[in-house]
């Protein structure tokens, strides 16, 4: 037994627990094709396009994937944004071009997912995979006295479907319905666990961790960037100055007290697992 209270671990879902790249494209492509009045100028391939993979580290919410899919069907979609600012500009331009609202896009995406689960649940599940050893590692947290929950911008029902299929039971699950991640984290901090341990947040989107760090009330939250997730070039650099810790897959598999691992040297990230 450790004398230090075990942390409450709050895991992002996509890119931390689960790699669902095939499903993100599959469902976004279908939702875009349903919303488009005319067939796309360029056919949307069934295989995940490189531009979609490259954009994934910047994508924040599900509806954005549908918008990106529609954009990739244009005759000249333009260069792939590489910064948060240029990506935000692309989203704004695209929403205006298509005359869509985020809520419409989110609904279309969730309808595709709900129909897929209703008609071929096994097929839908098979488009996702838990990262290696994640399921076993989450089960083992119990022996370390730590509880864990999920905080995602995905619809809670879809995350629950995947967790249940893997036999995983988080202490809680917050999806996009519960509001921005910073707000959910504030609520979790305000209602500490009986054990009174610290709150650790494990996420693969650098911009989200930067937002947490920019929120004074969330100063007690320890932020970890998951090395195996959807990282963009340079996402692992300069973490220490921002108060973000680096978590690679090897340390993640090890005991919680050994998680502190050195940040990568510049250019060392191979978007790897
Ligand atoms: Mg993620």
Number of strands: 8
CATH superfamily of the largest domain: HAD superfamily/HAD-like
Helical/strand content category: alpha/beta
Mean pLDDT: 94
What is the domain total for the residues? 2
Query: Could you describe the largest sheet, including whether it forms a barrel?
Result: 6 strands, parallel
Order of helices and strands: EEHHHHHEHEHEHEHEEH
CATH class of the largest domain: Alpha Beta
What's the helix count? 10
Small ligands present? magnesium ion
Which spans of ≥5 residues are poorly predicted at pLDDT below 50? none
**Shape verdict:** globular
| Second-tier CATH architecture of the largest domain | 3-Layer(aba) Sandwich
| % residues in beta strands | 5-15%
- Rg calculated over all Cα atoms: 19 Å
How much helix, percentage-wise, in residues?
40-55%
Strands of the biggest beta sheet: in what spatial order?
A: 5-4-1-6-7-8
Return the CATH topology of the largest domain.
Answer: Rossmann fold
Structural features, described:
The protein is of the alpha/beta class and 273 residues long. It folds into two domains: 8-19 and 129-258, Rossmann fold; 21-125, no CATH class. Helices cover 41% and strands 11% of the residues. It has helices at 21-35, 50-55, 62-72, 84-98, 102-125, 134-140, 156-165, 181-190, 206-213, 249-253; strands spanning 8-11, 18-19, 129-130, 147-151, 173-174, 199-203, 222-226, 244-247. The strands form two sheets. A six-stranded parallel β-sheet has the order 5-4-1-6-7-8, with helices on both faces. It has a two-stranded antiparallel sheet with strand order 2-3. α1 crosses α3, α1 (21-35) crosses α5 (102-125) and α3 (62-72) crosses α5 (102-125). The longest helix has 24 residues, at 102-125. The radius of gyration is 19 Å and the shape is globular. It starts with 7 loop residues before the first strand and ends in a 20-residue tail after the last helix. Magnesium ion (MG) binds next to loops.
